[in-house]
Write a structure and sequence with these properties.
ANK repeat, Ankyrin_rpt-contain_sf, Ankyrin_rpt, repeat
Length: 295
């Protein structure tokens, strides 16, 4: 039995004779871990990874061991590869990702596992088809509907992470396709949630990180809610001087008014947020007649 058959059939003893676990089949570019994953051989895949086989190796068509495990619906091998840090977002040459293949197969268990490991569902293959399109074309209604729910669930996760100061989790969610400015209906954005919970590290991340958005920092600081309140209004209302200062340094407009005609300073004074009000004045905010009366 040669190494290809040994890997695909789970003959670990036969593979043990190999001196190189990255040997490549010349015709296909497949390596031992590809064959083990394709054959659903959990123990063999575990053995190969433990002996240095690269978890994200690719064949001639750009397919990884994880892609082949997803294609053949070998859930335990998929779980193993993900635990060993396989990248679920690597696409084959035709642009098909693991999520796309699971959607095409109607494989809900695999899809759930991939999404739990931060795989993105916002991709297109070379024909312009998204995972949702592939699920629709193949009549997998449950998979198709799952993507609609996934969008909302992940926005909720992003907002929860923002309120708790979990920047690394936010990075994973955004990398997986969550819009950092997304709102559910008319609810708050992640930036607004972070401000309300005084998570200044999250505020700084959302304002300045260049990997999550190409929108300039100054524009990010100008976002408004349904009442036309800016992030600066909210920071003043909460009374967090550090966040007020950060927003102003990022380009927030100190004189901006909401739909009630109120500035950030109006709210800081009304709510007796003295430290925040002082920062606003240092940046040029002027007391209005309303402010003076409130004082």
């Amino acid at each position: 039995m040669d190494w290809r058959e040994a890997a695909e059939n789970g003959d670990t003893d036969g593979l043990a004779a190999l001196s190189n676990f990255t040997v490549v089949d010349e015709a296909t570019g497949l390596q031992p871990l590809h064959f083990a994953s394709k054959g659903g051989q959990y123990r063999t895949a575990e053995f190969l990874i433990g002996n240095g086989a690269p978890v994200d190796c690719r064949d001639r068509f750009g397919r990884t061991p994880l892609y082949l495990a997803v294609f053949h619906q070998h859930l335990e091998v998929i779980r193993l590869l993900l635990e060993k840090s396989a990248d679920p977002d690597i696409a084959c040459q035709c642009g098909t990702t693991c999520v796309s293949k699971a959607a095409e197969n109607g494989d809900m268990e695999t899809l759930d596992l991939l999404l739990q490991n931060w795989a993105t569902w916002k991709t297109e293959n070379q024909d312009g088809e998204s995972p949702t399109d592939l699920a629709k074309r193949n009549g997998h209604f449950l998979v198709w509907s799952k993507f609609g729910n996934c969008e909302k669930d992940r926005v909720r996760e992003l907002h929860d992470a923002a309120g708790k100061g979990l920047v690394e989790k936010m990075k994973k969610l955004i990398k997986a396709g969550v819009d950092p400015t997304a709102r559910i209906h008319t609810a708050s954005s992640a930036l607004e949630v972070a401000i309300k919970h005084k998570q200044i590290e999250v505020v700084q991340f959302l304002l300045y990180d260049t990997e999550i958005s190409q929108v300039p920092t100054s524009q990010r600081a100008l976002s408004v809610n349904t009442e036309m309140k800016t992030a600066l209004h909210l920071a003043a209302m909460v009374g967090d001087p550090a966040t007020v200062d950060l927003l102003l340094a990022a380009g927030a407009i100190v004189s901006a008014r909401d739909k009630f005609g109120k500035t950030a300073l109006d709210y800081a004074v009304r709510r007796r947020r003295d430290a925040a009000a002082e920062i606003l004045r240092q940046w040029g905010a002027k007391s209005t007649a309303t402010n003076e009366t409130s004082q």
